[in-house]
Design goal:
Layout (H helix, E strand, L loop, with lengths): L31 H59 L1 H53 L23
Amino acid sequence: MKNPERDTHTTENTASPTPDPGGLSLFAPLPPTIDARLVMDWRKMELIVYTCLVAFFILAAYGFYLIYNLTYDVHQLTKNVSELTQSVSGNMVRIANNMDRISINMDGMGRDMNIMTNTTISIQRDVWSLSQNLGAPMSMMNGMMPWSNNSGPYPGSPGPLPYAPPK
């Protein structure tokens, strides 16, 4: 009985392309382990590429959504600015009149501040004069008190500040 695996005369076409003269051929079949490894590597690469494509499409859709919302918000902003501009331009005369009144009131407040400054200077001079008149007798009485450590005459405050009118 013949062994079919050992039979070299089969009817199938098992001829491979003719090898290179150097012994290397581009069309020579690869050993099964290398072929299986290449298929596994190819599948891994497909998985990575397809995952990256899905991620890219998701990010592109989200970017489109963000840009769409930004343009909508800018459109709303331009409408609001347009309405505000029309409102302000219609009330500009009233605003100018109010600014004139505010300017007049500020001038009056400046005059009132000058009056208060002069009054404060008068109060300062009067308190200094009072301090000079009562300082010596009080200094003597402070020397008689047990908690006092004032050994010399009452020094008093320096003189009043000179008045410099506002410019």
